Amino acid sequence: MFAKFNRSNMDIKEFTTEVSGQKQNHPWEHARFQVVLDILKRHLTPHYHAILDVGCGDGFFLEKLSNHYKKMRFVAVDTAFDDSMIDFFSDKYKQANVAFFKSMPHSVDGVSGADAVLLLDVIEHIEDDVAFLKQLASEPMVDHDTLFMITVPAYQKLFCSHDVWLGHYRRYTTTLLKNHTQEAGLEIIESGYFFNSLLYPRFLQTLKEKLIRPKIDNVTGIGDWKGGSTAAKIMKSILVADYRISRFFRIFGIKLPGLSCYIVCKKRTSGAN
Questions:
Q1: According to the 3-state scheme, what is the secondary structure of the chain?
Q2: What is the pTM for the complete model shown?
Q3: Closest by Cα among 19, 241, 62 to 149
Q4: Hey, how many other C-beta atoms are within 10 angstroms of the C-beta on 252?
Q5: Which residue(s) pair with 144 in the sheet?
Q6: Could you give the CA distance from residue 153 to residue 231 in angstroms, rounded to a whole number?
Q7: Handedness of CA 205, 207, 211, 216 (dihedral sign)
Q8: 245 touches 254 (CB < 8 A)
Q9: Would you say 111 and 88 are in contact if contact means Cβ atoms under 8 Å apart?
Q10: Residues 160, 209: contact at Cβ < 8 Å?
Q11: Angle, nearest 10°, between helix axes 27-41 and 229-250?
């Protein structure tokens, strides 16, 4: 059985903070979607038919992904859900072919296995992330062909009040992320950083907090964007351009740092080192 893990999911926490059907997702979320979609396109093959999003939050990501993969089945799992949230999101995304669950199902409408598992800014909320990944990899819907796509916040030195408010246990480097996924029995395919431009405002924030410690009760998240549609489009465009510049430099072996990092992996086959 998929154990309830101790975390406070960003989207769910901010959904309950901004309980509104008119919630607008932050441009960072829209830009991260473009980043993850670009990475997935390099690895998803035409035969893929089911994607599992663990720690799915408000379902925003899968709803957008369904526009690109209309024949695919989507399974959304989040232990922070209650029955009213499941009803709300199931109705909101009823056209997107998404099934919502509070715990890991063994199968969904005849789909017994997931072709890909998404863990998007999830495992930093889990105290023992290695044990969690091991448990997830042993679930009936996960087999040796299942692709894992993981994103996490980067650099422990940038840990600040925002991380505390969200319930993060840690931030990662790609080295730490590789070590933890390998320890969990996963085989690395690709890894890297993204959103280099966001490092600098976060560094200034952490520097400021060393001088003036904020009250956690006064910290807010990114759950409800109020900057307007024009500002949102500009910010999203800047972040997507930022990612594309970093990807361009990677062609020449230059790996730029970023405020987030990612890894793509699979279950290690028997006998692999």
A1: CCCCCCCCCHHHHHHHHCCCCCCCCCHHHHHHHHHHHHHHHCCCCCCCCEEEEECCCCCHHHHHHHCCCCCCEEEEECCCCCHHHHHHHHHHCCCCCEEEECCCCCCECCECCCCEEEEECCHHHCCCHHHHHHHHHCCCCCCCCCEEEEEEEECHHHCCHHHHHHCCCCCECHHHHHHHHHHCCEEEEEEEEECHHHHHHHHHHHHHHHHCCCCHHHCCCCCCCCCCHHHHHHHHHHHHHHHHHHHHHHCCCCCCCCCEEEEEEEECCCCCC
A2: 0.89
A3: 62
A4: 7
A5: none
A6: 24
A7: positive
A8: no
A9: no
A10: yes
A11: 30
pLDDT per residue as tens digits for the range 5-46: 444 444 555 454 444 445 578 899 999 999 999 999 999 887
Q: Which residues pair with 100 in a beta bridge?
A: 76
- Residue type for position 43: H
Contact between 62 and 83 (Cβ < 8 Å): no
pLDDT band at 252 (very low <50, low <70, confident <90, very high): very high
Residues 127, 132: Cα–Cα separation, whole Å: 9
Give me 245's structure tokens: 């510049």
Residue for token digits 């926490």? 13
CA 89 to CA 86: how far, in whole Å? 5
Among 196, 208, 185, 209, which residue's Cα sits nearest to residue 238?
Answer: 196
Task: At 75, list the tokens.
Answer: 């399974």
